[in-house]
Write a structure and sequence with these properties.
Length: 296
């Protein structure tokens, strides 16, 4: 919808990139105009970890008809993401820098402002509805998984079943619904103080989740040697380190701000997983047999 209007008002790909480089030198470089190489690497690690630990994305693979379709979907997804990055981030980002940058208070407003400036009202509504639909798709997946985690993984499996407490499915369904509402409200309240920092808040949340679950997931799915104590130590240590690094960054400490919190969090989590596994007994074979066809 937006492409022909952008081409008419801003010009071709190469024209836009050359013009935006004149307006903001360094804008088209990998580091942009302000990032250091360490922060650039950190930022890429953040999103690599994010997509490795986002269980709601993994669960979508189970919707495939068979394993062949599931495997074929991965390279096609990567191709579409690369096209989106080249067109959306570079080209449309450059157009926004040329046409509407002086009209916005935050980079998050660039796309809606650009759409409103170039498209007729009806087409602008359709384009922005697509963005909202994508956001809602991710949000409802996360909320549904959060509710299920609270009701079934924590309350049912970790509290009720070890104590011999039996509840029917309707009880856990009510708990799940309540958890979804509560988590949604908390997330909304957390985003209200400074909406301009949503992307930064998301990156910090991803860093915490990644430092908590990356190594337990990775090692737990590939090796029988990992122990319960190692997984717990990795999760707790990675979480604490990441939260502390975020706090130091927000306090304005320069040595902390140069590296995204996910890096120290992952380092500590990985070391704890390795060291604690050496000194503790692995999980029993009866618990891992269903996940490993052969001994590893």
């Amino acid at each position: 919808i937006l492409a022909p209007y952008v081409l008419e008002h801003a010009g071709s790909w190469f024209s836009v990139l050359s013009r935006v480089e004149e307006v903001a030198p360094g804008w088209t470089s990998p580091r942009g105009t302000s990032w250091s190489w360490t922060y650039l690497v950190s930022w890429n690690v953040v999103w690599f970890v994010a997509y490795c630990t986002r269980v709601e994305l993994v669960t979508k693979m189970f919707a495939a008809r068979d394993h062949r379709i599931a495997r074929c979907s991965l390279p096609w997804t990567i191709l579409l993401v690369m096209i989106f990055l080249l067109y959306g981030n570079l080209y449309l980002g450059g157009v926004a820098r040329l046409l509407v940058w002086d009209q916005i208070a935050s980079p998050d407003q660039a796309f809606p402002t650009l759409v409103g400036a170039l498209l007729p009202p009806i087409l602008a509504a359709i384009a922005l509805t697509g963005v909202a639909a994508a956001a809602m798709s991710t949000t409802d997946s996360l909320l549904l998984m959060s509710g299920a985690a609270v009701a079934h993984d924590i309350l049912r499996r970790c509290i009720h079943e070890p104590q011999g407490v039996t509840r029917d499915e309707r009880y856990y369904l009510r708990v799940s619904r309540f958890a979804i509402v509560a988590i949604g409200v908390l997330a909304l309240l957390g985003s209200l103080p400074d909406i301009a920092l949503i992307l930064q808040i998301v990156s910090y949340a991803v860093a915490i989740v990644g430092s908590t679950f990356f190594f337990p997931l990775l090692v737990g799915l590939t090796s029988r040697r990992v122990s319960r104590e190692a997984a717990i130590a990795s999760s707790v240590g990675g979480t604490i380190t990441t939260v502390l690094w975020i706090a130091w960054t927000l306090m304005g400490l320069h040595w902390a701000a140069d590296v995204h919190p996910v890096i120290p969090g992952m380092v500590v989590a990985g070391l704890l997983m390795l060291v604690v596994s050496v000194f503790t007994a692995p999980v029993s074979e009866t618990a891992t047999d269903e996940f490993f066809l052969e001994r590893t």
